[in-house]
From TrEMBL:
PANTHER family attached to this UniProt entry: 5'-METHYLTHIOADENOSINE/S-ADENOSYLHOMOCYSTEINE NUCLEOSIDASE, 5'-METHYLTHIOADENOSINE_S-ADENOSYLHOMOCYSTEINE NUCLEOSIDASE
Organism of origin: Caldithrix abyssi DSM 13497
Protein's name in the database: Nucleoside phosphorylase
Residue span(s) of domain Nucleoside phosphorylase: 42-184
Cellular component GO terms held in the UniProt record: cytosol
GO molecular function term, any single one: methylthioadenosine nucleosidase activity
InterPro entries for this protein: Nucleoside_phosphorylase_d, Nucleoside_phosphorylase_sf
Amino acid sequence: MLTIVSALRAETEPIIHAMPRVEALPCGAGSLRRYRHFDLLRVGVGEQRAVQSFKAYLERYRPSQVVLMGFAGALNAQVSIGQVFAIEKIIHAGSSQTLALPVPETFGRLARASLLTVAKALTDGGEKNKFREQFKTDLVDMESFYLAALCHERHIECFALKGVSDLADSAANMQFKKNFKSVSLILFETLKSILQIEK
């Protein structure tokens, strides 16, 4: 079973509207929708919620593959809003621990990027530059490291696909509100293409 995991409903809204679900199931503080070919799990924002929801799911179900899909802020000045990346490395900002992720052949046409997981959203240009200089990463989010770590602990194959929703600076909130719908559509189309998801 393939499981697509996101933090926000907004990240998967196009899937919810376009794909006929089989059923909706309880899953701790999260939201689980079952489709013909995959599960769609929303875990919530931040470490505590995301871990709680994902653990609740993994206690009941055993996916063979997990795709972490969602939005990320850009740390790298060369990255543009709307770009979608295959993540090959995730770093935890607090501990500097690093997890390497495989990039499957189906992701071949996507650019690769590294991802930093932080405790709170970055909305300050100075803080953004500090993290970029310290960790040399391209993107930033708040959940992926923890979810990938749970997959690694359970020997579940884990991939990550991230779309850039903002530039992780003082205008991040405004950029996110302006762009999240279009970025979620780009993510959906990318996901359909590389995973060959059909109704």
